[in-house]
Amino acid sequence: MKKTKNNIVFNVKKKGFSLLELMIAVAILGIISSIAYPSYIKQVQKSKRTAAKVALMKIAQLQESFYVQNLSYAKTLNGNAGVGGLGFANATILSEGGEYSISLASTKADGTACTGTSVVPCVLYVLTATPIATKPQAHDNECTGFRLTNTGEKAAKSTVYTTYGTASVRDTCW
User: What φ, ψ does residue 133 adopt, rounded to 5°?
Assistant: First the structure.
């Protein structure tokens, strides 16, 4: 653009961006973000599921060690081996990162729960990992819970399939 002042011609170049150029760039950024953000959240949810599965596997390993030493599975997560516990501080524990609550249910051969001071051995157990409602992982609709049994059976549930045992959910989550 040429500008004159006292009959002298100056070449003046525009600097910066116009408002239209800036708005187009912001719109493109918005479109890219709206596509990428849900994928990012989904990947974060998948990675946090791993913490729940690792916690279940670790406790299952502790249960097998307990069984070898006591010819019975532990009744509870808390308490020492003398009272049938695995040595944790609480009856439910948190996964690494605190996104899942892990619980244990042990059963006698007759199908009743192993509780109290019963000397009858616990022959079955079920470990369950449930997302904590106040944590972001509670919004993971694909995998709303995990289960692992003494036989190694892995199960999961979702918002669509609300009970354990659906093979497609298990395959997606585990």
Answer: -60, -30
